[in-house]
Structures are given as structure tokens and as C-alpha cells.
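USER: Please consider what follows.
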Amino acid sequence: MGRIACANVLSDLYAMGITECDNMLMLLSVSQKMNEKDRERVMPLMIRGFRDAAEEGGTSVTGGQTVVNPWIIVGGVASVVCQPGEFIMPDGAVPGDVLVLTKPLGTQVAVNAHQWLDQLDRWNRIKLVVTKEEVKEAYQEAMFSMATLNRTAAGLMHKFQAHAATDVTGFGLLGHANNLAAQQRNEVAFVIHNLPIIAKMTAISKACGNLFNLVQGTSAETSGGLLVCLPREQAAKFCSEMKNQSSGAGGQGAVGGAWIIGIVEKGERGARIIDKPRIIEVPPRGSQAANDNSSNPDPNANLS
């Protein structure tokens, strides 16, 4: 939880192409419902995870605030002072751009499905479409994905002349795509054709009566990837570089990289997902299928 919270906070900088952070503060609420033994075990672990992720991002935690609360809450603040050329304003998308997403969707479904392993009535709703082992693998994938920094993508935004970006979190892919489209200087619309989703999460969502609205793009994500608008001629290169750097750094591994998910066209500053989007099943790292996974390098693929 500590690592995920830190990665989520840093993504606000990474979404503007900023790779360096000067300072971080950690905000933590300790649950009053926890006994002293649990509190002394859990809280230091959360603090350590937050600090570890900050260190991975090349920064440090210099302070913050801790309060007592009915629930555990963890968050923070990331700040940096930089020159105008060091960040990319999220308002420069133009018709013809390609939309790229740097982490798979489905974290909310994966976490819920893992909780349902111990809830017989819930498990009975999904056991025909997924095995317990597949749920555990998806949960591990979601956890690793959420804890992965978007720093690599932030650096590559400059190299490949990104025009705009946002991080995908609580409003889901479509919610954040709409927010980004609304901020554009040009009259453009985002059209999403492909949805990279952690394997089996689409089937679970359907088995639950579309409880999460995963394919509709409004399923909440936590510490998701960056949604980046790139020139068409740069999108495939960005994806390839993301995959190479993620694998080389031991980060996102075989399933790492990025996926081309849509296009930017003339429109009224909104976003939509086509009626029958292509679902890209992203296998959890470590699984046999992960070795065969592709980042969809062709910018023209499935975008008609």
C-alpha cells in the first residue's frame, strides 16, 4: 500500500513529462480500530514502502503528517521546481495523434476478485470463468502494476514528442480521457478502440453482471498507467522503447511496455470507446502466456 500510494502521487508529475521530484511528504492516518500490535506491525511497513518507492523515483520523503482516523489512509505530496522546457503541458493534442496506455486496466476487478476467494456467494458467481490460481496471479499482477512508477514513460514523452498526457486512476480510463480531451487547445476528440486488460478480468466483470463497467471504461483504477497523445509516426517507437526499458530494468517484465489504444480526431473535446473494442488480454508476469505477449507495435492496427 505504501509503494502504491507513492507511485500514485508521483504520477501527477510524470503525466507532465517530469522525471525528477525535489521533495515528497507522506500523509498517513492510523486506524483507531487497530490494536497496538497490528498498528506497530503494519504502519512501519507502509511507511517503508512509501519511502522505498520515493527512493526508486530519485527523491526522498522529508516530512508529512500522521493522524488517527476510523480508516487507514495513505497519500502524499510531490513537488518540484523546474524550467519550462522540462515539462509538457497536457493540452497539445492534434487530429491524427495516437493514444497510448502504459499499464493494463482491471486493477479494481483483480483486487475484488481476490477478496471474493473467501466469500462463497461471490466466488460462486465467477468460478465458472476463472480459477483460484488465475485470480491469485491477476491480483499479484495488479499489485506489481500499481506499485510500478510511471517514470520511464515520463522520460520517453520528451524523446517521442508527446502532445499531452494524464495518469489513469479513480475515474477510470474513459473518465480521465474525457478530462484530458476537455483541456485541449484544439477541437479534438479521443476515440478508443483497444482495451489492454489484465487476463480474465473482462470475463469476471461480465460474470458479475458488468458490476465494474470495465469494458465501458469507468472501472476505477489505482496508480494506473499514463494515457499519452503521441504523433502517429512516434507511437510504435514509444511502445517498443517502453517494452525494452521495462524488461531491461526488471520492472514491468515480459508484460511491460505500452499499448496503442486509439486515435485523436477532430471533435468537441470529449472521449468515447467504440461499441465493440478489441480486448487485449494481458497475461500476468511469470505466467507462461506472458512470454508471448506483444505491445501491439503497429500504430495502424485495429484503429479503423
